[in-house]
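agent: user wants the structure for Putative NAD(P)H nitroreductase YodC from Fervidicola ferrireducens. delegating to structure tool.
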Amino acid sequence: MNEAIRVLKERRSVRQYEAKPIPKEIIEDIIDCARLAPSANNVQPWVFVVVTSEEGKKELARLATWGKFIADAAACVAVFCERDNKHAVEDGSAATENIMLAAKAHGIGSCWVAGYRRPYSEEVRQFLRVPEKYELISLVPLGYPAQTPNPPKKPLSEVLKWEKYE
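agent: tool returned. relaying tokens verbatim.
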């Protein structure tokens, strides 16, 4: 199987991590892949804040309603896009997916934690000292998987329709 296809098919949301740091070069490569994501009109409206400090990860975990496991990750990437960009959600989502796929290619687990217009979005932005012109799209904890879940996925026959729905 092609390596890219394998990564796409095997990526899962990982919420349990080994207590092992990720080399800086790998994190930089993951973010390099994120910045190469497609964006509407090639505006590239994003900025990525990587948090590796224990205190920073604990605070992000405290703030994020469904992201308590961020505290146990080796790093957490906060994806921000320019607030006035009409395609901020789409562009930031494409970059987020690239982060998760690049992480998987490096043997690193990740999990998408929602950030866009959540009750904690502004607190996260302020905590990370990101300028007001940006808004949070997602938080992506990264770490070597302690456990890789394999939840059932709908079969292709259930989700693929040709020409029209019926």
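agent: one observation worth passing along. The mean pLDDT is 97.
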